[in-house]
Design brief:
single chain, Spore Coat Polysaccharide Biosynthesis Protein SpsA, Chain A, two-stranded antiparallel sheet, 10 helices, 38% helix, 21% strand, transferase, Glycosyltransferase family 2 protein, glycosyltransferase activity
């Protein structure tokens, strides 16, 4: 069994591959794989002609982030001790892959870990997706050190430490391969968005721990598939967040959380309407209706443990929007 595979999922990402793959090839030690989600552009041609050292797994259709990784990694099952899952729009740094794997080798209490993730658009700032380590509040809203909602901090070395987190970012993280398959990978009903958080929640409830190391840095462009302001992304985030709670909490606890989220997100939808953003307002309710249409497919699990959330905020929505706490250090 080899030590690690770096695996990139691609769908119509020819421009991202041309921009970011040369750096990944230059700075990486482990085997490189691209899972192609039946791209309609010239992604595969570019891979075959310009990056012959990269192995390609071609899927028959676009299965989304969750299904694409699940199906592709199934073909690598038993071949590698670790997987590093890397978005196609990430710029890496020297020894990044070796250092991530070494972090798990040294800190064996962790099943998965992410690096510090900064913005490729402005390298002084933290990135939206994962930043300096991800947490969940009591309503399952995700937030990060270095990023709460759309407010991001400048990197001044304040998160160069190592620590335990609630979830690791799908933009870049390393995971023990046997555990990925043991937990049946990502929930394919999610299609895209929040599937990595759901996997982390499921793993944590079975006693496994997630890590962050600020000693490894990557730069994430973000929005390569769906822009952060996309109504479709908002819809999927709301639907999948509800599904994650439904799967991992008791029915009584779910409905208690649901009621509070419905009020808060209903107010958010009204805010979108008042600002003339009708598509975003509609996306909120499409997220709710999408959840109810699919909720019987999101089967409730019986968790061995109920792992407490590790972050400082119990209600990050209230802290941010009503109490003016815009930075992690304020929480």
């Amino acid at each position: 069994m080899k030590q690690c595979a770096i695996v990139i999922l691609n769908y119509n990402g020819a421009e991202m591959l041309k921009r970011f793959l040369p750096g990944v090839v230059e700075h990486s030690t482990f085997d490189l794989w691209v899972i192609d989600n039946a791209s309609q552009d010239d992604s595969v041609v570019i891979l075959e002609q310009e990056f012959p050292q990269i192995s390609v797994i071609r899927l028959s259709q676009n299965f989304g982030y969750a299904g694409g990784y699940n199906q592709g990694l199934e073909q690598l099952k038993g071949d590698y001790q670790y997987y590093i899952l890397l978005n196609s729009d990430v710029e890496v740094t020297s020894h990044w892959d070796q250092d991530l794997v070494q972090f798990l080798e040294t800190n064996r209490q962790f099943a998965a870990a992410q690096p510090k993730i900064l913005s490729a658009k402005d390298k002084r700032l933290f990135d939206y997706a994962g930043a300096g380590g991800g947490f969940l509040d009591h309503l399952f809203y995700p937030y990060c050190r270095g990023r709460i909602w759309n407010e991001v901090e400048e990197d001044q070395g304040q998160y160069d430490d190592d620590l335990e987190v609630d979830w690791t970012s799908g933009a870049c993280f390393v995971i023990k391969s046997d555990l990925f398959h043991q937990f049946q990978g990502f929930d394919e009903h999610f299609f895209a968005h929040m599937e990595e958080i759901d996997l982390c929640v499921r793993m944590r409830q079975e006693g496994f721990r997630m890590g962050y190391t600020g000693k490894v840095t990557v730069y994430h462009l973000g929005g390569a598939t769906l822009d952060r302001s996309s109504p479709r992304k908002l819809e999927l985030n709301i639907r999948n967040n509800l599904a994650m709670i439904y799967k991992n909490e008791s029915r009584s606890r779910f409905w208690w959380i649901f009621g509070q989220k419905a009020i808060l997100e209903g107010l958010a939808s009204l805010g979108y309407l008042l600002k003339g953003q009708r598509d975003s307002a509609h996306a909120v309710w499409k997220g709710y209706s999408g959840f109810f249409k699919m909720r019987n497919e999101f089967l409730q699990r019986s968790a061995t443990k109920k792992a407490p959330f590790l972050g400082p905020s119990k209600y990050v929505f209230l802290d941010f929007f009503f109490r003016g706490k815009k930075k992690f250090s304020d929480l």
